[in-house]
Design brief:
- The chain has 266 residues and is of the alpha/beta class.
- Helices cover 34% and strands 19% of the residues.
- It is globular, with a radius of gyration of 19 Å.
Length: 266
Amino acid sequence: MLSKFLKRPGKNNPRSTIEPGRRVYAIGDIHGCDDLLAQLLDQIDRDDDARGPAETTIIILGDLVDRGPDSAAVVERLRLLKQARPAVRLLMGNHEEILLAALAGDDKALRLFARIGGRETLMSYGIDDATYDRLDYPDLHRSLIDNIPSSHRQFIETFEDLIEIGGYAFVHAGIDPRSSLDQQRTRDLRWIREPFLSFPRPLDKMVVHGHTISDAVQQRAHRIGIDTGAYMSGTLTALGLEGDQRWFLYARQSAQADQIGSMLSA
């Protein structure tokens, strides 16, 4: 029998809302695209100012690193932002999980790191192509230890797995829709695709997630997916939430920083 977390068949999920006086921005998977992140954070600040006073939270949905060219710069930018603005919150993506395991010397994680964009991450910390090509796995581990600052490792270790605000649940990958939020497995929160993505009905909270790339924002009865594949597409997406309203902001390599998506109703 499905958990009580699921809505009864035929019952409409009430409009997801954020409590009065609060505003939330969620940013999708960055993957080393520091130029797009800088542009999007600037858009968020200007959009936030234009909307008037509120208690504003920025949520980073995870996967800061790998694949794109500037993972080190992304981590440092967000580390400093978190210091300046404690209301910024960050979720642990599967790529951060792998990076931490590789730093700890896990051989399987080291091999996976090398296959999923870790080369670009280590190069962003100062390793050149020729040096990287000479590394075996023990050398790769030593290079990670030597070149990734302890401040970055400690920062990543503080990332969360699940954030609930109002009628929304924010995660990196998704949830197991057969279990309640307080019974979710860490692996699912960081890695799941099915049965989450194709689940046909509303849940008690609207789930905001990244992890699975789509050409455009995906809005379904139970989820909003905002990973628009920044490192491939050149588009990094943020979702804005206040009351019962939703809107989207986009940073694009070919666009000016003031390009703003249309406001959409929930």
